[in-house]
């Protein structure tokens, strides 16, 4: 399940409602939101962070496969 970006509904040329506020919620908020919605926390991570986590997982799997073989 994918949630729409909240900024997608702003009118073109309008300013952000809260300037100076970070774009990412705290880890506790992301965990709670993922639990309520019933998805993985990675759905709410920035693309670069999610990609890095997937890449690290693939590296671990490759290392484990090499060691087991």
Characterize the overall form. Answer: elongated
E-strand count:
0
Question: Pairing-aware structural class of the strands and helices?
Answer: mainly alpha
For the record, give the distance between the C-alpha atoms at the N and C termini, rounded to a whole number.
38 Å
Largest sheet entry: none
Which ranges are low-confidence, i.e. pLDDT below 50, for 5 or more consecutive residues?
A: none
> What's the alpha carbon Rg, rounded to whole Å?
17 Å
Q: Mean of residue pLDDT?
A: 77
Helix content: 40-55%
User: Which range does the strand content fall in?
Assistant: under 5%
Number of helices: 2
Return the string of H and E elements. HH
What does this structure look like?
With 69 residues, this protein is mainly α. It has a domain at 24-68. Helices cover 48% and strands 0% of the residues. It is built from two helices and no strands. It has helices at 27-37, 47-68. It is elongated. The chain starts with 26 loop residues before the first helix and ends with a helix. 0% of the residues are buried. The model has no long low-confidence stretch (mean pLDDT 77).
């Amino acid at each position: 399940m994918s949630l729409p970006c909240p900024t997608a509904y702003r009118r073109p040329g309008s300013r952000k409602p809260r300037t100076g506020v970070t774009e990412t919620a705290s880890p506790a908020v992301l965990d709670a939101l993922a639990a309520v919605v019933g998805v993985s926390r990675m759905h709410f991570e920035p693309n670069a962070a999610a990609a890095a986590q997937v890449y690290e997982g693939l590296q671990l799997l490759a290392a484990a496969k090499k060691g087991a073989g």
